[in-house]
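Example for tutorial group B:
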């Protein structure tokens, strides 16, 4: 049975009496427009920039505190 489906989709010639049924509905094809792709790309880039900026801020703050000059009052 699966061999018949493969033959039906590939368009191979079948012997008489075999694989005469063709699928009634074709495989669905989805197309995402370039506008949606651009909006998704910009949104993902913006979120990545915010997350990386927040992470870098904590890293710099920690580094500044570690390298802070220690003054001892006598």
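The residue assignment follows.
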């Amino acid at each position: 049975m699966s061999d018949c489906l493969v033959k039906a989709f590939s368009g191979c010639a079948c012997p008489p009496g075999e694989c005469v049924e063709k699928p009634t509905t074709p495989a669905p094809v989805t197309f995402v427009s370039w506008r949606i792709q651009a909006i998704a790309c910009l949104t993902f880039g913006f979120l990545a920039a915010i997350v990386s900026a927040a992470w870098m801020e904590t890293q710099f703050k920690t580094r500044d505190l570690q390298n802070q000059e220690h003054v001892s009052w006598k």
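The mean pLDDT is 75. Compare this with the pattern of hydrophobic and polar residues in the output above.
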